[in-house]
Write a structure and sequence with these properties.
By secondary structure, the protein is α/β, with parallel strands linked by helices. It has a single domain, classed as 3-Layer(aba) Sandwich (Rossmann fold), CATH 3.40.50.12710. The protein has 13 helices and 16 strands. A hairpin with a 2-residue loop joins β11 (268-271) and β12 (274-276). This is SAM-dependent MidA family methyltransferase.
């Protein structure tokens, strides 16, 4: 792909090692694996996958930028919603997929100012490399609070408080399904001339078939089904005793997700701040994502004993939670600090940036008070 930056020779060797691993799996499975399995290996294969290896992923030196890297306003504002939930539950925080650790830093710093620090801030992180990066970052930025942080390799058996996930669901492996005139097909990965290629298998049974059969879409349509994300929400529901699951990601409700105009799905890859739609390009060196079907996420929660307590755009959530108050703590007269913050707020809130595409969903258990982040602009009716 000529328009993308050239990888280093070392990066190419790394990518080829991962490609060889995936090729071996395909050959050992009758020359076909589901795309979900391909995506799982490309992102999470131990020591080789995109999130498991040592290259920088987040921020301006990586492949994409998330909200906490854009501005501290994000975490500082989110802290106000988290503070409310901690007061309701007297619980802790569990962040899933903490990236660089920037959100943990912003939350803990602001919660200290709000006198709302939890006893524990747990980070569930499957990547040993990212765990070490997060630990180093927090030790450097927040040495007086890092003793409250504990890293987990698996979910605890029970939890009360706030469970957070910022851009976590979009990175979970998705199945690809094609609606054809003669039936449903799962799109998977095969080998042709020693290269990855698409191949479709008839889809007639199983959980994926049952999920897809409930959707009404036109023939010729290809889209993603994220069974892993639904299963993840179900697992969180099982451990939650009292509290809120807050998931922030880009996506839509079902009717918009499977709109006829979105006939090629939402699969997207990110490499060195370039977005493209070629998941077989340089496996291990690029992120692979899909937008989130928030209707499926809500249903997974409700089916497992949770209540849907809010669904809205990132812009509405941040405004409701007090981002303008946080911004006003910096005087406009101090232009060198205020103007960059104002520009960052624009990126977080603008419909043409992150404000409308990114959504926030709240699923809860044993919570009676209304959450401040959803007081206006709630779009739960669209799910």
């Amino acid at each position: 792909m000529a328009h993308l930056p050239e990888p280093t020779p070392e990066a190419l060797i790394h990518s080829q090692q991962l490609a060889n691993l995936i090729q071996a799996e395909i050959e050992n499975n009758h020359n076909w694996i589901s795309f979900a399995r391909y995506m799982e290996l490309a992102l999470y294969a131990p020591g080789l996958g995109y999130y498991s290896a040592g290259a920088s992923k987040f921020g301006h030196s990586g492949d994409f930028v998330t909200a906490p890297e854009i501005s501290s306003l994000f975490g500082r504002t989110l802290a106000r919603q988290v503070s409310q939930i901690l007061r309701m539950t007297d619980g802790d925080i569990l962040e899933t997929g903490a990236g660089t650790g920037a959100l943990a830093f912003q939350l803990l710093s602001e919660l200290a100012k709000l006198n709302s620090l939890p006893s524990h801030y747990y980070i569930l992180e499957v990547s040993a490399d990212l765990q070490e990066r997060q630990r180093s970052y927090l030790q450097q930025k927040l040495p007086y609070l890092v003793d409250r942080v504990e890293w987990l390799n698996q979910l605890p058996s029970a939890f009360s408080g706030v469970i957070l996930g910022n851009e976590v669901l979009d990175a979970m492996p998705v199945h690809l399904v094609a609606w054809r005139e003669n039936g449903l097909y799962e799109r998977g990965v095969t080998l042709q001339n020693n290269r990855f290629a698409w191949r479709e298998h008839p889809l007639t049974t199983g959980r994926l078939f049952e999920t897809v059969s409930k959707l009404i879409v036109p023939n010729g349509y290809v889209s993603e089904i994220n069974l892993a994300a639904q299963g993840f929400i179900a697992s969180l529901a099982q451990i939650l005793q009292q509290g809120i699951i807050l998931m922030i990601d880009y996506g839509f409700g079902e009717s918009e997700y499977y709109h006829p105009q979105r006939s090629e799905g939402t699969l997207m890859c990110h490499y060195r701040h370039h977005a493209h739609a070629e998941p077989f390009y340089l496996p291990g060196l690029q992120d692979i994502t899909a937008h989130v079907d928030f209707s499926a996420i809500a249903l997974a929660g409700i089916s497992n004993g949770l209540q849907l307590l809010g669904y809205t755009t990132q812009a509405s959530f941040l405004i409701n939670s007090g981002i303008t108050d946080v911004l006003s703590e910096t005087s406009p007269e101090n232009a060198s600090i205020y103007l960059p913050l104002a520009n960052q707020a624009q990126k977080l809130l603008s419909p043409s940036e992150m404000g409308e595409l990114f959504k926030v969903i709240a699923l809860g258990k044993n919570i009676s008070d209304r959450l401040i982040g959803f007081t206006m602009g709630d779009k739960s009716r669209l799910l």
